[in-house]
Design goal:
The complex is a heterodimer of chains A (about 325) and B (about 350).
Chain A lengths: L3 H14 L5 E7 L6 E6 L8 E2 L19 E5 L1 H12 L8 E5 L8 H7 L7 E4 L3 E6 L2 E6 L6 H4 L11 E2 L14 H7 L3 H12 L7 H4 L25 H14 L9 H5 L7 H15 L27
Parallel strand pairs in A: 1-4, 4-5, 5-9
Antiparallel strand pairs in A: 1-2, 1-3, 6-7, 7-8
Helix pairs in contact in A: 8-10
Chain B lengths: L2 E5 L3 H9 L3 E8 L2 E6 L18 H4 L3 E8 L11 E2 L7 E6 L1 H14 L7 H8 L1 E6 L25 E5 L3 E6 L2 H9 L3 E3 L2 H17 L13 H5 L3 H6 L7 H5 L6 E8 L2 E8 L20 H20 L10 H5 L6 H10 L9
The chains are: A alpha/beta (about 325), B alpha+beta (about 350).
């Protein structure tokens, strides 16, 4: 995907110098391996700060919410679906945007690579089509790129932007997957006690930093329910009940809206697989309503509208 | 100050003898992370290691802690009287923390234990805890401790400093607490001049390997000009206002106090808080003096790198452990911010 870099810069330069947009939102190259920094560029002379590689897993739609200006934005498949969701939910207008579509090959999973390295520190990571080459002091390892994609990218079926003004390259071939929900089904098959134990263990490291929530473009409420003071719905400590309440409610707020971009999981500083919760709800929404979020700009999400033929089998 | 050798083959004897007088904590594996936890034997320790994901601060200042409890039962004679929640203060040893974390503890002391205020729980835990630091022979690429007044073998805040040699640890006592611990511990042998020489070489090499960030100009900058600097707009853009940096930071000490009531009993709990959260500064009136992201981002860096320096004539309130550099989901790198602040050209260029 490195070949996108020059094109992103060219397009950004053109858009800014022709005054088609006020700013361009993209990524700056990371200061540490396998990271990148969301960046906003407003002058043509600064466009060379823009970059693109296999580490652009943060969802840039998060930076669009209620912006008043004209924005050029680089968007992967998932970002573009969140742009659609943002349009449907009146967080941004289509005419404000110039969408630079990035057909995506999948982002690499930094936390899984770091975990695989144990405590050895990579100082340089080079990714090509097939391999991730990691080097550091006394360290040289290669990982199969496809094995070390972010989990959400491995099961992604919308790598190409669904809405754009210009594409950075020809569309990539979409993955044909037989079952995208194997991880969810494994949990669904558990007994209630086992599920309880599984989620307890999964959430135990949570420090309630809210990186998962804040990295999510769907979480734009002026005051999140966990921050409400009058009344206060949730305790602020790391009591397991409050931690569970936060995670489960967060996930439910994303039901029928989540594009499985994986920004939440990528942002977590303590490696909690928070996507397992939202993915279960994605599966339910798909099963119950046949709905995939962010695909069509004029359809409201199913939990936002009432239809007489809505499935009601779960009401007992 | 004495130095002894603990042969790696005798480390279990050493730890076992500590266990007779102390609870022993050290870096252990917890899932994908390394965290401070109970240590019974050498095999429990995650050695060698770079650093723990979360800092040492929770050992003295837990993320959530019951301070007081009270009854709301009118039948109860003590109803409505707030009582301190009983706590235990066993003698503890933290084995193998990194020197940057110990230095950070001394920076937090400035807030938690000063002539004006003494936080009783912090103070008691500090008194009953002995810190055995493990010098960093191989600092990470994100480390910048020597630029922040610390270093890979910084002795500040430690009771004992260990230097790893090929087959042994050279243990140097730095305080009476450390001296006593080494005197009572088993598995130690007299240090040799050759061992001390090797340790000195390791230290020098590690220090030289670290990058040098310039910070000298920070203290003479005009605070208001730095506050109003234009670069904050650029620094803040990516920030998602999560609390990862502040919660992982060993020197961030802010907390919030909450009452939690269930049926007829209540607890007064303090929890880590974060200046990254809008709620941190929200007034009861609804007014929020730091309503915008840029104000919150600026606060975090200004507090560590300017206000602390100006207020205490010391600092900065950063030890260069690099945790925030590694954990920030959007790659906001404090090293870049330090340089921006240090190099910022103010019109006067001097303190107001």
């Amino acid at each position: 995907m490195l070949e996108y870099v020059d094109k992103i810069r060219d397009i950004a330069r053109r858009l800014l110098s022709e005054n088609k947009v006020d700013v361009v939102i993209g990524f700056r190259q990371g200061s540490v391996p396998m990271m990148s920094e969301p960046a906003v560029i407003s002058r043509p002379e600064d466009v060379d700060e823009l970059y693109w590689d296999y580490n652009c897993g943060i969802n840039l739609t998060n930076y669009l919410t209620k912006r008043p200006d004209r924005i050029g934005i680089v968007a992967k498949g998932c970002d573009s679906r969140n742009i659609v969701t943002h349009m449907v939910e009146n967080q941004i207008k289509r005419e404000q945007l110039y969408i630079i579509g990035a057909p995506c090959h999948g982002m690499i999973d930094r936390s899984r690579i770091l975990a695989a390295l144990g405590d050895q520190e990579p100082t340089k990571v080079v990714v090509n089509d097939s391999e991730i080459v990691v080097t550091g002091p006394g360290l040289e390892r290669k990982f199969d790129r496809k094995e070390y994609l972010q989990n959400n990218c491995a099961t992604c079926i919308h790598r190409n932007p669904v809405i754009y003004d210009e594409l950075l390259a020809a569309p990539v071939e979409e993955q044909k997957l037989t079952n995208r929900y194997a991880d969810v089904e494994k949990i669904e098959a558990m007994s209630p006690d086992d599920k309880w134990a599984f989620f307890d263990k999964m959430l135990a490291p949570c420090i309630r930093c809210y990186a998962c929530r804040n990295a999510c473009p769907l979480c734009y409420c002026p005051t999140c329910f966990v921050d409400e003071a009058r009344p206060q719905w949730v305790g602020k400590s790391i009591d397991p009940t409050d931690v569970r309440t936060f995670h489960f409610l967060r996930a439910y707020h994303c039901a029928g809206r989540c594009t499985d971009c994986g920004a939440c999981e990528r942002a977590c500083p303590v490696n909690i697989p928070v996507r397992l919760l939202t993915k279960k709800l994605n599966k339910d929404v798909e099963d119950l309503y046949g709905f995939e979020p962010g695909m069509v700009p004029d359809v409201r999400p199913p939990l936002d509208v009432y239809r007489p033929d809505d499935p009601g089998g779960f009401i007992k | 100050m004495t130095s002894v050798i603990i042969a790696k083959s005798k480390l279990n004897d050493f730890l076992a003898s500590l266990k007779s007088g102390y609870q022993v904590l050290g870096p252990i594996h917890q899932g994908d992370m390394i965290a401070f936890g109970p240590v019974n034997k050498v095999e429990d320790l995650a050695l060698p290691y770079s650093n723990t994901r979360l800092s040492i601060k929770s050992v003295f200042f837990p993320q959530s802690e019951r301070m007081f409890g009270y009854s709301l039962d009118k039948e109860d004679a003590d109803a409505g009287i707030i009582k301190e929640t009983p706590k235990e203060y066993p003698n503890r040893v933290v084995f193998g923390l990194r020197p940057c974390d110990a230095k950070a503890v001394t920076l937090v002391d400035v807030n938690m234990d000063n002539p004006q205020y003494q936080d009783p729980w912090w103070v008691k835990r500090r008194e009953t805890t002995t810190l055995i630091g493990l010098g960093c022979e191989h600092p990470c690429s994100t480390c910048f401790c020597t630029s922040m007044g610390s270093g890979p073998f910084d002795e500040t805040g430690l009771d004992v400093l260990l230097t790893e040699l090929p087959d042994a640890y050279l243990a140097k006592s730095l305080t009476p607490k450390g001296e006593q611990l080494l005197k009572q511990a088993k598995g130690t042998d007299a240090a040799s001049p050759a061992g001390e020489k090797t340790a000195a070489e390791i230290k020098t090499k590690a220090e030289q390997a670290l990058p040098k960030l310039e910070t000298a100009k920070l203290k003479d900058k005009n605070m208001m000009e730095l506050f109003n600097a234009r670069f904050w707009e650029r620094v803040q853009f990516a920030c998602i206002n999560c609390g990862a940096c502040t919660f992982l930071c060993p020197t961030c000490w802010c907390f919030d106090i909450q009452d939690e009531v269930s049926k007829k009993a209540g607890d007064r709990i303090r929890n880590w808080d974060s200046c990254m959260f809008p709620l941190f500064t929200l007034h009861g009136t609804g007014h929020n003096p730091r309503d915008h992201k840029v104000q919150r981002v600026r606060q975090r860096f200004m507090h560590k790198l300017k206000y602390y320096i100006d207020k205490y004539g010391d600092g900065p309130a950063c030890v260069g452990c690099g945790r925030c550099v590694q954990a920030c989901p959007v790659n906001i790198d404090i090293r870049n911010v330090i340089t921006l602040m240090n190099e910022y050209q103010t019109s006067a260029g001097t303190k107001a």
